[in-house]
């Protein structure tokens, strides 16, 4: 892979490498984002973060919040498949935000970006609730990817307080064990939610957990994937790697 961009910031070494037309962002050797100008699908964990929106009709997601933008892998599929009226992303890491804006070209997708601590940003937020919140907060300085914010009761409540009455919350955990040992796995965490799902893929250990305010079934997601032209082509079917299991 060809190195096309690099920088060092606060002891973290960042690189963007190109493989064909695919761009990949690394921090201390750990991949954090991927972008291809002609593909919505990465074939990896980033697809799992927006897929839960297809548990319901995409048109309901008028306000979308991404906590932990990285290089912006989620933004093109959110824009094309959901096309929300408001799309907001918060990113603490200045190098990641620079890559998203200047290398991956995320500004072209109509995303309103903020540089800052996503947890503090949401705790201070006083605006309208969001229909979809994707929480993907990981520490770039670690040699192994791990959550930067504990999924404790206070943080879960803050996320719930800023989610609309029919909204969906998606959270990224490093693996199934990290989720199972967190308050997010308890019955108490389901207060105010009707359904909970786990999404996973073959090339990573991450456990993506989706909470929906309204009842949902995994078959609805599968049917919407099949009915969506950009996700049902031969290339897309070969690239989309996911497993979904209802937890409640």
Explain the overall architecture.
Helices cover 26% and strands 31% of the residues. The N and C termini lie far apart (43 Å). The chain is an alpha/beta fold and 248 residues long. The protein has one domain (42-246): 3-Layer(aba) Sandwich (Rossmann fold). It has helices spanning 45-50, 75-82, 94-103, 118-124, 153-161, 176-180, 218-227, 229-232, 234-239, and strands spanning 2-9, 12-19, 22-27, 30-35, 63-67, 86-91, 112-115, 130-135, 163-173, 195-200, 207-212, 243-246.
Descriptive keywords:
248 residues; alpha/beta; Rossmann fold; eight-stranded mixed sheet; four-stranded antiparallel sheet; SAM-dependent_MTases_sf; Spermidine synthase; polyamine biosynthesis
CATH topology: Rossmann fold
By DSSP, the count of extended strands is 12
Q: Strand count, sense and closure of the main sheet? A: 8 strands, mixed
Radius of gyration: 17 Å
Number of helices: 9
State mean pLDDT (0 to 100 scale): 95
Please indicate the percent range of residues in DSSP E strands (runs of 2 or more). 25-35%
Per CATH, which architecture? 3-Layer(aba) Sandwich
Distance between the termini: 43 Å
Morphology: globular
Order of helices and strands: EEEEHEHEHEHEHEHEEHHHE
Q: What's the CATH class, please? A: Alpha Beta
Q: Could you say how many structural domains there are in total?
A: 1
**Residue windows where pLDDT falls under 50 for at least 5 positions:** none
């Amino acid at each position: 892979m060809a190195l096309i961009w690099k920088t060092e910031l606060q002891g973290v070494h960042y690189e963007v490498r190109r493989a064909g037309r695919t761009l990949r962002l690394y921090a201390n050797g750990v991949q954090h984002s991927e972008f291809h100008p002609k593909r919505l699908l990465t074939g990896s964990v980033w697809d799992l973060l927006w897929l839960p929106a297809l548990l319901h009709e995409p048109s309901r997601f008028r306000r979308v919040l991404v906590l932990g933008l990285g290089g912006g892998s989620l933004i093109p599929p959110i824009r094309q498949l959901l096309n929300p009226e408001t799309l907001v992303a918060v990113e603490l890491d200045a190098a990641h935000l620079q890559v998203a804006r200047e290398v991956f070209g995320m500004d072209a997708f109509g995303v309103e970006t903020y540089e800052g601590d996503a947890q503090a940003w949401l705790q201070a937020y006083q605006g309208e609730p969001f229909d979809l919140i994707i929480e993907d907060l990981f520490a770039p300085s670690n040699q192994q990817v791990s959550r930067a914010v504990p999924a404790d009761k206070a943080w879960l409540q803050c996320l719930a307080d800023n989610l609309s009455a029919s909204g969906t919350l998606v959270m990224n955990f490093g693996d199934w064990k990290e989720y199972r040992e967190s308050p997010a796995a308890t019955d108490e965490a389901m207060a105010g939610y009707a359904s909970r799902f786990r999404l996973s893929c073959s090339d990573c250990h991450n456990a993506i957990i989706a909470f929906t305010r309204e009842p949902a079934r995994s078959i609805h997601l599968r049917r919407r994937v099949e009915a969506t032209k950009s996700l049902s082509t031969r290339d897309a079917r070969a690239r989309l790697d996911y497993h979904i299991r209802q937890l409640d």
